[in-house]
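Hi V.,

You were right to ask for the full record rather than a summary. Here it is.
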Amino acid sequence: MASGDTSSEERILADDFIGIDPDGTAVDKAKAISETRLGAKDYVSNHLRDVKIRFYGDTAVAQGSESWIRHIGKWQIVAPEDLIAPEPSN
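Predicted structure:
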């Protein structure tokens, strides 16, 4: 998602894909791909971690977690403090 490249997602998501966003909203394949295209402006990177795969006959279930780094905007000065350094003593 961080790159905006949807080629992998287009290939691996089934046409009848339904995912659930963190807020509980259902997302179909078209919406997921759209969010990936738009996500590149919000995220620096994402990494898949701790994936466990279980097999049930010819079906596999993969569960894991991801970590994201998001653009947070620009730095701004909010509370500067200017001090005068004391003169060195001899």
